[in-house]
Design a protein that fits this description.
binds pyridoxal-5'-phosphate; Aspartate Aminotransferase, domain 2; globular; five-stranded mixed beta sheet; alpha/beta
Length: about 375
């Protein structure tokens, strides 16, 4: 076959900014891993009521396109919002992406507080926007002064992750309100993916503050990461615009059918959150007593500084079947998803063995 480029025909290429992007790094399937603590998933799974619903689904339900709207009514009632203020999404990731597609054009600025969840950068770059990273303040505190100072007429989006991933730090309501007021021409994306572990929200401001958007997910406390279900909430007129660019059947039938059970089983979520919060505090104390610095976290993970031992510890734990998340953007740090107390006790006992094996190896030199 003749080569079309040889005849001077144009050669197909993705946009330059897309070709220059980094791919989101998902760990490959690792058969030896018994405890996955690298993606902030639930370690115990979803509510049995959701599982029963999944098991009861028949071939006909699966054969049909499932409308999203009844689910949006359910979520609206659950959150105290109108269904017009809610969009169900294919995970929170899709909500982030839709916002970027609807509000950003090339060279617009998106402000992200560093260290941050990677998907903001990816979705902003797809839209051709420029990501402006504002480093967190000391001890990864929310840098409200620096954010307010960096807002300018090109700022079209400000992302606040509350609690933040990977640090677990939170921004106060007063600081979030200041940012919303300082950037009326920008979409302020408040990512509340870890809300259930924290308990504080700005959802009551939806409909009152026009530039506020809130993202939530069922992937964490609800244990439904595999179903891919998220919520994007905002002022009804903006949500109408987002609905125009959203695929009509973006959320799958399983997720929509299970939503009512997931929302109804409040006890399940409350029990899991209680376990995680208790074992998070325990894990943090144990890590600190081993000499590793941790930061206070309001989410289902802990950021810990292993310093120069990081690579060795991550590799040794992985060899023992435990995956933690390396965070090269936080000097010497790794992020540990918090699960149940027995799981955290297992992690600490394996870590102690790794450390004592290292000490004995050093002594033998
Ligand atoms: C801060 C934050 N936002 C959004 C997401 C994506 O959630 P989902 O699984 O709903 O796409 C994650 C997942 O880790 C996250 O940490």
């Amino acid at each position: 076959m003749p080569n079309p480029s040889a005849r001077g025909a144009p050669v197909l290429k993705a946009h330059q900014h897309v070709r220059e992007m980094q791919e989101y790094q998902v760990s490959p399937e690792r058969p030896g891993i018994k405890l996955r603590l690298d993606l902030n998933e639930s370690t115990t799974g979803c509510s049995p009521r959701v599982l029963d619903k999944l098991n009861s689904m028949d071939a006909r339900t699966i054969a049909l396109y499932t409308p999203r709207e009844p689910g949006e009514k359910l979520v609206g009632d659950f959150l105290g919002l109108k269904k017009e203020q809610v969009l169900l999404t294919n995970g929170a990731d899709e909500g982030i992406d839709l916002l970027c597609r609807a509000f950003l054009k090339p060279n617009d600025e998106v402000m992200v507080i560093l260290p941050a969840f990677d998907m903001y950068q990816i979705s902003a770059q797809v839209a051709g926007a420029k990501v402006i990273g504002v480093p967190a303040a000391d001890d990864y505190a929310f840098p409200v002064g620096a954010v307010l100072q960096a807002i300018n007429p090109r700022t079209r989006m400000v992302v606040i992750t509350n609690p933040n991933n990977p640090t677990g730090a939170v921004a106060s309501r007063a600081d979030i309100l200041k940012v919303l007021a300082a950037a009326p021409g920008a979409a302020v994306l408040l990512d509340e993916a870890y809300f259930d572990f924290y308990g504080q929200t700005m959802m009551d401001q939806i409909g009152k503050i026009p530039n506020l958007f809130i993202v939530r997910t069922f992937s964490k406390a609800y244990g439904l990461a595999g179903l891919r279900l998220g919520i994007l909430a905002g002022a009804a007129e903006h949500m109408a615009a987002l609905r125009r660019i959203c695929s009509p059947f973006n959320v799958n039938a399983f997720a929509i059918e299970c939503l009512a059970e997931a929302l109804a089983d409040k006890q399940f979520v409350a029990d899991y959150v209680r376990q995680v919060v208790a074992s998070r505090e325990w894990l943090q104390r144990e890590l600190e007593s081993l000499g590793f610095k941790c930061w206070p976290s309001q989410a289902n993970f802990v950021l810990v500084r292993f310093a120069e031992q990081r690579a060795a510890i991550l590799a040794a734990l992985e060899a023992r079947g435990i995956a933690l998340r390396n965070r090269p953007d936080c000097a010497g740090c790794a992020r540990i998803t918090v699960g149940t107390q027995p799981e955290m006790e297992y992690v600490i006992s394996e870590l102690k063995q790794v450390l004592s094996a290292k000490t004995s190896a050093q002594a033998a030199k």
